[in-house]
Design brief:
Helices cover 15% and strands 37% of the residues. By secondary structure, it is an alpha+beta fold.
């Protein structure tokens, strides 16, 4: 049997490149326990990454926009159903306000404007968001879209950085990449983020009911609601844990040389 040195080197490069590829990590939120009233954020630790999940919605007025409720404020409360989390925003705590709905993260509303509910995911290191799963959606999967956005983490250093911002302002000036995703149903509800945000890395990510400022069609809004049950993400390939150690490379090169010599003896 002959061993081509070129083939061996190609095999070596493939093997060495393998560990440098980003792997996908899944974080489920079903085991998080609601510990108090007005429970509006929680932390999850998985694969060495800490994720803070908080809720936000446009429920306050700006001095320049007194009638549109466009300023973002923290949600009042989270509720869990079948492993997925909904939120009650500050408008919804007043009961029946504008036909909003406090049992999902949604874009419902009948006062001439909508409250757009979003989960902010703050990661302890830069990641690329791959997908999200939902325990419940308000309509059929074909009628439900979500928005996803990677925020500029040089501007947003913590979750409170969202306070009094607007979704339009985020989309136009403080977002690295954003898009919408269709919800699908295959043994559970989920959406894959393989559009404009694919391979984008950030420590701050938004997932919420469709808001066309981040992508998609405004005509699709108004009937999107979900309960977030988990996400999957990939770490940056520059993460030291993803790159082979120098000693590993040296040992592999020695093995290549030995295989090459063995092949020459047999020819």
């Amino acid at each position: 049997m002959r061993y081509s040195f070129t083939r061996l080197m190609m095999a070596g490069l493939l093997l060495l490149s393998g560990p440098a590829l980003a792997s996908t990590t899944t974080a489920g939120f079903g085991n998080v326990i609601e510990t108090r009233s007005n429970f509006n954020q929680f932390d999850v630790n998985v694969d060495g990454v800490t994720i803070n999940v908080s809720g936000w919605s446009d429920t306050a007025n700006l001095s320049t926009d007194r009638s549109q409720d466009s300023a973002i404020k923290r949600a009042v409360d989270f509720d869990k159903f079948n492993g997925g989390w909904s939120m009650q925003n500050q408008d919804e705590q007043h009961g029946g306000y504008c036909n909003t709905y406090s049992h999902s993260a949604d874009n419902f509303g009948t006062c001439g404007y909508k409250d757009y509910d979003f989960f902010l995911l703050s990661f302890s290191e830069e990641v690329s968001l791959v997908s999200a799963s939902y325990s419940w959606i308000a309509k059929s999967a074909s009628q439900t879209q979500v928005s996803v956005a990677a925020l500029d983490n040089s501007v947003f250093t913590n979750s409170n950085s969202l306070n009094n911002k607007t979704w339009a302002g985020l989309a136009s000036g403080h977002t690295l990449k954003s898009d919408y995703a269709q919800v699908e149903n295959a043994s559970g509800y989920y959406s894959n983020f393989h559009g404009d945000t694919q391979d984008q890395y950030s420590t701050m990510w938004l997932i919420g009911a469709l808001n066309s400022v981040f992508g998609g069609n405004a005509a699709w809004e108004g009937n999107d609601g979900m309960k977030l049950s988990g996400i999957s993400f990939s770490k940056s390939a520059s993460d030291p844990a993803q790159v082979p150690e120098p000693n590993t490379i040296v040992m592999f090169l020695i093995a290549l040389i030995c295989l090459t010599r063995f092949g020459k003896r047999r020819t």
